[in-house]
Design brief:
alpha/beta, Rossmann fold, Dihydrodipicolinate Reductase, domain 2, 2 domains, eight-stranded mixed beta sheet, seven-stranded mixed beta sheet, 12 helices
Length: 335
């Protein structure tokens, strides 16, 4: 068994990691921590009553290194890099679920804060397995992508060489409330979100530069990305609609089928997708349609699984020389 630690276990992504890893055939949870510690896991997550009893520790890098080979960091940005830099120096592999290692230094500091671990930033591999699998296998630090970039890039990247970069790309994104985290805010208050839908931070969201940067890396071209996220009255799930203009009249579904023919966690459909069919799974469901040179992409993921925790475990599988599909959820929460 491979011992793993979960740092930041109090949130939704921390709970999802516990649920996946508890039943994993090769990973064993040896350490669970929050910033404060000092309580039992069941007190933190009552849904685990009679399932898993563990002490929740106050996160300490030296203690983690004594009992774990790999650590999942389900922490906010800035807090994550503080732990990662110490864990890496102590020989612990890291899968970071925050934004701290996803971006180039200049992009990160323009949209988040000053980076405290420039030493390891350039060593991090972007954890989108369909594109960086071989690099992930060799890495000790994987930057797990967020939900919006995951669902957008999986649909967009294979088709991006055919997209005319002279014209803007528009991305209309809709996410369930769990993507906003466990702490209640005005936007996530029941009275605000119930029977309601609204955009937030349009054209200025932090995931917009992440999507643009990964497209530039993939094609060595600059794309004008226009990203508008919305909150919808659902617990989990994410639906992305992307609009672009093509340079030539291709069959976008055929391009995607050819690209993803060996990708177990991407499913292609000949009709628009929905959030329910992949909720509770690591799948990304994609539909594509072309009319003349107008391209429409429609993709869906579970925002706290494929957009966070289950994708993190896929990355950990690869980092530890395991089959990427090992222990990963594939049965949707339907109905």
């Amino acid at each position: 068994m491979i011992n793993v630690a979960i740092i930041g276990a109090s949130g939704y992504t921390g709970l999802e990691l516990i649920k996946i890893l508890h039943n994993h055939p090769k990973f064993q949870i040896s350490y669970i921590a929050t910033s404060e510690g000092g309580e039992d896991l069941v007190a933190l997550h009552p849904s685990l009553h009679t399932i898993l009893t563990m002490e929740v520790s106050k996160a300490d890098a030296k203690e983690i290194a004594k009992v774990a080979d790999l650590a999942f960091l389900a922490l906010p940005h800035k807090a994550s890099m503080g732990f990662a830099k110490h864990l890496l120096k102590l020989g612990v592999k890291v899968v970071d679920l925050s934004a701290d290692y996803r971006l180039e230094l200049e992009t990160y500091e323009a949209h988040y804060c000053e980076h405290e671990d420039k030493e390891h930033l350039n060593e991090a591999v972007y954890g989108l397995p369909e594109f960086y699998k071989e690099q992930i296998k060799k890495s000790s630090l994987v930057a797990n992508p967020g939900c919006y970039p995951t669902a957008t890039l999986l649909a967009l990247l294979p088709l991006s060489p055919y997209i005319d970069e002279r014209f803007p790309i528009f991305i209309d994104a809709k996410s369930g409330v769990s993507g906003a985290g466990k702490k209640c805010t005005h936007n996530t208050h029941f009275v605000t979100i119930n029977e309601n839908i609204f955009a937030y931070n349009p054209l200025l969201h932090r995931h917009q530069p992440e999507i643009a940067e990964k497209l530039r890396h993939y094609n060595q071209k600059e794309y004008d990305i226009n990203f508008v996220p919305h909150l919808i009255p659902a617990t989990r799930g994410e639906l992305i609609d992307t609009y672009a203009l093509l340079k030539e009249e291709i069959d976008p579904l055929e391009v995607l089928r050819d690209f993803y023919r060996k990708s177990p966690f991407v499913r292609l459909f000949d009709k628009p997708v929905n959030i329910k069919s992949c909720a509770g799974t690591n799948f990304c469901d994609i539909f594509a349609k072309r009319v003349d040179k107008k391209l429409y992409l429609n993709s869906s993921v579970d925002n706290i699984l494929r957009g966070a925790s289950s994708q993190a475990v896929v990355n950990a599988n690869l980092m530890c020389g395991l089959d990427e599909e090992l222990g990963i959820p594939t049965i949707a929460y339907v109905p």
